[in-house]
What does this fold into?
Amino acid sequence: MQIGRISFHQSIRPTQSGLMLNIDQSSTVFIKPLLVMDFVEMLLNRDISDTQLTGTDLLKIVKALEGVKVHVLCNMHKEYCVSGVTSQSAEELIFPVDSHSTREPRETVLQYFQKRYGVSIQYKSLNCLQVGTPQRPKFLPLEVCKIAKGQRYPKQLNRGKQMEDFLKVAKQPPHEREKGILRALHFTHRNQCAVKLGIKIEDELVSLLAHILSPPLLKFNEYGMARSFLPHYGIWNMMGKKMVKGGRVNSWACINFSLHVRQNEATNFCYELAIMCLASGMGFNLSPVLSVETAKPEHAQLALTSLHSYVMAKLGPGRNLDLLLVILPDKNGSLYGDLKRICETDIGLVSQCCLSKHVLRKNKQYLANVALKINVKMGGRNTVLNDALEKKLPHVGDTPTIFFGATVTHPPPGKCSSPSIASVVASQDWPEVTRYAGLVSSQPGHHEWINNLVELQYDSEKGIVTGGMIREHLISFYRLTGQKPQRIIFYRNGVSKGQYSQVLKNELCAIKLACKSLEKDYNPTITYVVVQKRHRTRLFPADYRDKPSDSTGNLWPGSVVDSVICHPDEFDFYLCSHSCSRDKGRGTIRPMYYHVLWDENKFLAGDFQTLTYYLCYMYAGCTHSISIVPPLRYAHRLASRARCYTEPRSSLESGSTAISAEPVGLLPIKDNLKFGMFFC
It folds into this structure.
């Protein structure tokens, strides 16, 4: 990888061949070395000194502390790795003094610490941390433990204050980031190791020649004031515009889980949202099936099933709610995931969640954005490319084409027994390319290529039966369009360069096998593209006062680099497809790296770059171009959603003394949702 400065006037190539050095800045989060009791009280936001923790509290603690190293205050020289939390208190938990012999005397954790260390446990009713191995577990009272220093926090931050605080530190404008990189480069120069090895490093960033692609013309409904729009800086809005195709919501209801939103405020918000949906071009019944229901977050399962049963009885057999609006507390913990799991795997409901802070503000822009999401969930289209309607998209307009997006998300560190989740979405319309359907499957943890693209099973009557996600998507495309896709464009996310050949070989063979299973002579041409986001290449305009940059100092949307820092013989390029203006210019844009590994469609480089860039304007959940093609953004959203479908499992069911948060198998999505955009 390389660092580069973009120049739109000249291209300076190295005068002699050599290596390129990649230097960049990174930010990460460390766990504060607190007493475990203080950490748990901050996590649960309450005093825990006089209560025994149970249920969801224990699961929260396990998720936060599992894999974290702790010290015992009376022996700070040794570290222990947390594996779980006991359901019993220090005065209740009894274990053999000698773990090798069950005939030895048994004593409580309380007694053990008093005898061994002379420590008198003050909070006797509190639970213990479990450390050690499952075969030889050890138990430590919460109050004697302290989190060890210098530990990186590998888990996801919450979307509230934690993420905001992190981004304030991590986000840097381009000119500040460039200065930091150059400082690091000058420090490298002073490193005597480089001098001794005879390595000479240039003082300046590599200059590159880039070009800017023109934005696409967007089409809206002809009954709006603006029928088409040419975006500037990759951004537009819905003022004076109507959705190309409005979905319809006949029956809907709302449930409120926030204590800060009163009944009349929730009712007014729902009415304003319904009016916005109507104004945007949807058909939306202003009257809900029932008045706003209120429930406590801990009773989500009961509240949702009760509401669904009541609505089913009121609407009659065979009918269901079109939409469920849900008002969530701003700090909702696992409630969002639990709600999506219940709605999408237990009941079969399309839901739209709104945070209480937005409900109380009733901002017009927020209502318009929510209306966009509801519309695509109801089968509508928000906007469409003019070139798609006129069948002018390169290699797509003249031939039925299906776009795939595929990704695999792996379990976080410390979750070795958790599965990886593969997600594959595919377009379901042509030539518009706006509707997508998604399928998910689980596979062994950290297994990179997707196992279930094609499945071969033996049936005693039919012989070998072929199935899998590719086949299901192709069949669905044919049913909805009446045409067989003759071209397949497969965008694949998250593959490192060392895995290119292995993943390509396995997945390309699976795609071709799935096609052959439909018809013996069915052989659509395939373009297989790997997209990388987690790379260290950063591109800066050559002159911030010149027009190569937008108002934030970042590259303009549509900037492409396909020389010098790219492979000399292969088909790859960097594309900056989004703008940083909407984020107040607080960060440096990271371009996406696209590498075409297989191309039977014989794309010209410019045509494929244009097609990819135009697709980035077709993400249904917002009114700006996005950083990565929509099939991959949808696939990532669906894979993240599928993590909610793995229910936590308490090891108490097997008679253990500790709570763990190991997931079970992936719960299946209800059939009525499977081929819709419920995940948007």
Q: What stands out?
A: The longest strand covers residues 75-89.
